């Protein structure tokens, strides 16, 4: 079973006093640390400077929204002038300006009408009255009623006291993570503390890509800062695609689910609040199989299918023998922005950069040097096959997909991300959550020194590190 949910943000999400705005400290033979050049949404070279746009106001009719795409290399300010409006379930504060980070895609929705002002250059901005928000908020109301029934059943039947476990599924670019944010923020606004589970290792909305993670949501999600990280729980898969080692992906899902079950068994309110689970956009073949695994492993009782009738029908047929699972088809928003593979890869790089430098690029990580002998690096999976001589007659050698393999530190690790495990012994790594991540900036083979950056100064909380295929290059 995974380690209990701990406040391990010392590395994963350091408090303000751990981060500084000073440059990275000097180290022997450091790799140059500089900002990635901005990239356009298509993955092409950085665009030419856009023409200056003066501040402008939009008067929104009831149940309409203003859809805005922020440039990849500039921020945009948003202000609510009158009325009420929200961004993905979180209300805009009256009068005050909000600075929206680069590359953001937002929709400012109003139930009763509002006037909104924008200041800065955007990639696109337009209004629309064709939104699925009424359907989404009705879904929220049904989930809220289930939470209330679960709370009323506390102390009685265990199944009756379980709130909704909602899993949101759908193809790529169908609005899954956006719907999750809305359902979580609306629930938190009513005083619930649902658990957010992110199984999308390709993008990562709780922490960096390559992780299966969860965190309680105690208040509406901040429009600028995103998912809170006071009490996160992350298991490191280490790759952006589950096809590299699906057995490890499933094993980590089981570890996370088991840890959450332990949490819920001792916290009736969290159990009644339930969970909202975000998934990958891979819904065919192995991706579909992993969706079915996730539904089973996390004991989901509500499946929300976005944007694909075929997937809805397949899932409905697959779970028809389980009467306690509702499979519901929802329309996706027409405002969902399509993203190609190059843009997704660039987004992964930005997510890693944000972990070390902050969303607004206003933080500085700390550089440190360790001896090779001070750390041990392991890779999960890709174990060697057993020799035929060690197998029964007629048996074929098969690699153990979850085998732990020691990795020799080499220059191949430069630019890669390593996870710092909470495991006390190597054989506990696959069942343990991680404290956070470091980025390798230099490997000196002759001196046997490894240079890395981390969000906080000081020694690492563990000498056990997990290798990955995640890379991040800071270009001059």
Can you characterise this structure?
- The longest helix has 20 residues.
- The protein is built from seven helices and 23 strands.
- Helix 1 packs across helix 2 and helix 3 packs parallel to helix 5.
- The chain folds into three domains: 73 residues, Clp1, DNA binding domain (Jelly Rolls, Sandwich), CATH 2.60.120; 199 residues, Rossmann fold; 93 residues, Beta Barrel (Elongation Factor Tu (Ef-tu), domain 3).
- It has a seven-stranded mixed β-sheet with strand order 13-12-11-14-10-15-16, sandwiched between helices. The chain has a seven-stranded mixed β-sheet with strand order 17-22-21-20-23-18-19, with no helix packed on it.
- With 476 residues, it is an alpha+beta fold.
User: Unreliable segments (pLDDT under 50, ≥5 consecutive)?
Assistant: 1-47
CATH superfamily of the largest domain: P-loop containing nucleotide triphosphate hydrolases
Number of helices: 7
What's the main sheet like?
Answer: 7 strands, mixed
| Gross morphology | globular
Domains (count): 3
**Strand order, biggest sheet?**
13-12-11-14-10-15-16
Tell me the span between the first and last alpha carbons. 43 Å
CATH architecture of the largest domain: 3-Layer(aba) Sandwich
The portion of residues forming beta strands comes to 25-35%
The name CATH uses for the topology of the largest domain is Rossmann fold
Name the average pLDDT.
86
Strands, total number: 23
């Amino acid at each position: 079973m995974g380690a209990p949910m701990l406040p391990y943000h010392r590395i994963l999400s350091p408090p303000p006093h751990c981060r500084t705005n000073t440059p990275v400290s000097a180290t022997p033979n450091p790799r140059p640390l500089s900002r990635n050049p901005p990239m356009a949404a298509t993955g092409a070279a950085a665009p030419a400077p856009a023409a200056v746009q003066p501040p402008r106001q939009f008067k929104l009719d009831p149940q309409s929204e203003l859809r805005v795409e922020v440039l990849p290399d500039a921020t945009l300010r948003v202000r609510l002038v009158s009325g009420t409006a929200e961004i993905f379930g979180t209300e805009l504060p009256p009068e005050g300006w909000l600075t929206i980070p680069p590359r953001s895609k937002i929709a400012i929705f109003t139930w009763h009408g509002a006037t909104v002002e924008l200041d800065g250059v955007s990639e696109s901005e337009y209004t629309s009255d064709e939104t699925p928000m009424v359907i989404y908020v009705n879904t929220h109301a049904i989930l809220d009623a289930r939470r209330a029934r679960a709370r009323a059943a506390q102390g009685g039947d265990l199944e009756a006291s379980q709130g909704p476990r909602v899993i949101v599924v759908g193809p790529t670019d169908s609005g899954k993570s956006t719907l999750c944010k809305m359902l979580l923020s609306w629930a938190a606004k009513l005083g619930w503390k649902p658990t957010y589970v992110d199984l999308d290792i390709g993008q990562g909305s709780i922490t960096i890509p390559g992780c299966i993670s969860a965190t309680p949501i105690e208040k509406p999600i901040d429009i600028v800062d995103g998912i809170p990280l006071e009490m996160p729980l992350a298991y490191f898969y280490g790759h952006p695609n589950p096809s590299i080692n699906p057995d490890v992906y499933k094993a980590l899902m089981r570890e996370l689910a088991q840890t959450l079950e332990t949490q819920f068994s001792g916290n009736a309110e969290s159990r009644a609040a339930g969970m909202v689970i975000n998934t990958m956009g891979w819904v065919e073949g192995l991706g579909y199989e992993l969706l079915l695994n996730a539904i089973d492993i996390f004991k989901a009782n509500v499946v929300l299918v976005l944007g694909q009738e075929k997937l809805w029908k397949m899932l409905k047929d697959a779970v028809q023998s389980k009467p306690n699972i509702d499979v519901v088809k929802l329309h996706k928003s027409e405002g969902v922005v399509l993203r190609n593979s190059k843009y997704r890869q660039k987004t992964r790089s930005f997510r890693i950069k944000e972990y070390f430098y902050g969303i607004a690029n206003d933080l500085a990580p700390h550089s440190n040097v360790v001896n090779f002998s001070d750390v041990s690096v392991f890779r999960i999976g890709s174990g060697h096959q057993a020799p035929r001589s060690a197998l029964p007659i007629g048996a074929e050698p098969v690699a153990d997909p979850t085998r732990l393999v020691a990795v020799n530190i080499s220059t191949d690790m430069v630019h890669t991300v390593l996870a710092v495990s909470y495991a006390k012994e190597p054989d506990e790594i696959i069942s343990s959550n991680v404290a956070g991540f470091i980025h390798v900036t230099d490997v000196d083979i002759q001196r046997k020194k490894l240079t890395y950056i981390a969000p906080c100064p000081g020694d690492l909380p563990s000498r056990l590190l997990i290798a990955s295929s995640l890379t991040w290059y800071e270009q001059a």
